[in-house]
Design brief:
The N and C termini lie close together (about 5 Å). The chain is about 35% helix and about 20% strand. The strands form 2 sheets. It has a 6-stranded mixed sheet. A 5-stranded mixed sheet has the order 5-6-7-9-8, with no helix packed on it. By secondary structure, it is of the alpha/beta class. The mean pLDDT is about 95. The longest helix is centred in the first third of the chain and has 18 residues, at about 30-50. It contains 9 helices and 11 strands. Strand 5 and strand 6 (about 170) form a beta hairpin. The chain has a single domain (about 1-95, about 160-255), classed as Metallo-dependent phosphatases (Purple Acid Phosphatase, chain A, domain 2).
């Protein structure tokens, strides 16, 4: 059973979406059931508030790895991008970057298999060898993935955005390099940064909405950033936020 819970926060000081209502979803990590429930709640909420328009949804990356249903999550993301029923932007995550790197050069990127890649391949029905030091076996494994994985999933993985700005908010996967304009950020920071960003009291002029780093099942709603990763694959809690000029509402799908 999956429940929905909410928590309202006041508007960020001086921050505006320019009148838009935006939903952002944190790291899914293969938790399809939570993702499905959270999207259903977003659609219900949006239809109640603005029935005349499709909801604006930003997915903050890390759709795959660690959880059990990465292939189904990629199916859902691919469908959302094509359906037109939701105005959706899918951002890149470091786990998608690792998957692409493995597909392009499996010998150089076998460590991905230890960081959630094994679970992703299992979701495609592919059993991963226990040992990763046989070059021929790793190339054969990559070729098996390309045989089994829908081409649409590969296209989705290679067409993800790095960032998007809406009003005074900027949406990325991991964070930003403090003091560097969003247009000048490098992909490595947008996908991987932690301490330099998380420990900074005001890393950017915009309020940064991100995933990637989590402590527990609570979203981090701060004046300068909103952290959405709540470790869904461990906590059973997947987090989204609805942001408008009135403030931020945390919306969570919670596995009972």
């Amino acid at each position: 059973m999956i429940a929905i819970r909410r928590e309202r926060h006041d508007a960020r000081p001086g921050a505006t979406t320019g009148g838009a209502t935006v939903y952002a979803v944190g790291d899914v990590h293969g938790c399809y059931d939570l993702f499905h429930a959270l999207l259903a709640e977003i659609r219900r909420d949006a239809a109640e508030r603005e029935p005349e328009r499709a909801p604006r949804v930003i997915l903050c990356g890390d759709y795959i790895d660690r959880g059990p249903d990465s292939a189904r999550v990629l199916d859902a993301v691919t469908w959302l991008l094509r359906s037109g029923t939701v105005d959706v932007t899918a951002l890149d995550g470091n786990h998608e970057a690792m998957f692409r790197a493995f597909l392009d050069d499996p010998l150089a990127h076998t460590p991905w298999l230890r960081f959630g890649g094994r679970e992703t391949l299992l979701s495609y029905g592919i059993v991963v060898p226990e040992q990763h030091d046989d070059p021929a076996a790793m190339i054969a494994l990559r070729d098996r993935v390309l045989d089994v994985m829908p081409a649409a999933h590969d296209r989705t993985l290679r067409a993800l955005a790095l960032s998007v700005e809406i009003g005074d908010y900027a949406f990325v996967h991991a964070g930003v390099r403090p003091g560097v304009a969003l247009a000048d950020q490098v992909a490595d920071d947008l996908l991987w940064i932690r301490g330099d960003f998380l420990d900074h009291p005001r890393p950017a002029a915009a309020v940064i909405v991100h995933g990637h780093s989590w402590i527990d099942e609570r979203a981090a709603v701060l004046p300068h950033r909103v952290g959405l990763d709540t470790g869904a694959y461990e906590t059973g809690v997947l987090t989204a936020v609805r942001i408008d000029d009135a403030g931020v509402e945390v919306i969570q799908a919670v596995k009972g």
